Each structure stands twice: as structure tokens, then as C-alpha cells.
Amino acid sequence: MRIDSCQHCHGTGYHHTGRDGTGSAYLCECVRACEVCGGDDSPAGDGFRLVTLTSPDYGDYEAAVQCPACYGIRQILRRMRAAGDDTPPRHSGARFQDRPEQAAIRRTLQAWVAAWIPGTPGFTLVGPTGVGKSFLLTHLVGALRSKHRVIVRYEDVGSLVQRLQRGIASGGITAIIDDVETVEVLVLDDLPRQWGSTWASETIGGVLRVRYDHQRTTVIATNHDEAGLRELWGGGEWGERMLSRMAQMAPLTRVGGQDGRSMPTSPAWRGSAL
Hints:
By secondary structure, the chain is an alpha/beta fold. It folds into two domains: 14-76, no CATH class; 86-254, Rossmann fold (3-Layer(aba) Sandwich). The chain contains nine helices and nine strands. It has helices at residues 29-32, 71-83, 103-115, 133-148, 157-170, 173-182, 198-213, 226-232, 236-249; strands at residues 14-16, 25-27, 48-55, 59-66, 123-126, 152-156, 185-191, 217-222, 252-254. The strands form three sheets. Strands 6-7-8-5-9 form a five-stranded parallel sheet, sandwiched between helices. A two-stranded antiparallel ribbon has the order 1-2. Helix 7 (198-213) links the parallel strand 7 and strand 8 (217-222). It is elongated.
């Protein structure tokens, strides 16, 4: 079965359990039955094939080499699984409602996804509670994975801080920080109203500084406007420096609309996907 002409995955080599690239990733049958190496049944192991080589000292011998058709896809999937899928379960399989007040931001995000390349600056979605920022981010994650095969890590900031605190006790904090600093695209959802400690502010600020220095795409969502962000980062020189970095790496993009969580007859989110 040829991977590049597969009608099921359209040549990507994998699918997601949710619609539009959300949920866990799994291999398409075209990779599992790769016609080049034998796929899952390859005697050389997943993603490898046996070839016959010749040595002047040992004559002909067999060696396992990377399969040119499926090895790269299997590596991408391993990295996706390592990154995990922590997008909000309540948004899995849903689609963004195309309300008139959301049409402009939706077109902006679609164009951004289509034009994305490594190092593309991200953005900071700013808006009040319930207007759909997390919903947009969930489907942004899926669209990036589907269109660009990029590794995207979604992190709720409060949960990330808690994980980092547990990492101090377990000795795993360095690995957690390295992961969020180096992943191709980092999505940070829901910057808090205030940091619980100076340590939390400096740690998350340090992650953003490293990503800024290395021009790695970062997308953020928050209820804060510019003044609120300045206060969140503690004001003064540090606050101005953080705002300056954010303006370059993730400029503010406003999201308007009503609070969908409090609408008395609010239907399930529906409409077309990113």
C-alpha cells in the first residue's frame, strides 16, 4: 500500500481520534502495511527494512536501514505521543461556531495556520471569559498538526505550574522545562489572574524568554489586556521587558463576543472547523 497516495490519510501517514487533528494520534493502515519495508511485519523492526550489503572483508551480509517511506512518519508519531494531547476534553470533536462577531478572528487564524513555518511568531488571544479562546486554541492545535505535521504542546498554565512544582520534589523539573522550551509550537492557555508566587512568574517568564531568544512559535490565551499583563508580570522593568517580548513573539489579538457559558439557550458549539 503506497503511503503518498493513500485515500484515508491523504499521505500524512496518521490519523487523530478526534476531528480536525485533535485527540491522540495513531498510524494509518498504509504505514502499518508499508509496501517498502513490510510495515509492522518487517523482520528488521518497525520503520526499518533489510538490505543486502557487500564488504570486501565479509562478503554479502544483511543490515537494517531506515525505511525511506515510513520511518520518518513513525518518528513523527512517536514525538506526538511523547508530547501528549492535553487539549480540553470538553472540546474534543466539536467545531467552532461561526458567529458573526467571531468571523474575523477565525479568518485570521485560518490564514496564520496556512502560512505557518518554523519560527513564525505566534499571538496572544485576549478576551473576557467564555468567548471561546480555549476552543479556538484546541482547533488551532489540530489544524497545525494536520496541515504541517508539527509537534504542538498544549499546556494549561495553572496545570503546568503544578506539574513543575511536583517536578521539584521528584527531580524531573529540568525535563519538563526543557520540553516546553524546545517544542516546535507551544500553546499556553489561560494565563492566571495573578501568580501564586514569584517563583511561578519567573519560571514561566523564563520559558518565554528562551522561546523568544530561539524564535520558537508560542501561542497564548489570557483574560488580561495590556495593562493587566503588565501588572501580571510585576510591573517595573521586568514587566515592561516581558510585554516587549510578547509584542514581538505573540502580539495581542482580541477575541470578542458574548460569554457562551452563561447564554441561557447556548447550543453545543457547531459550525465549520479551522
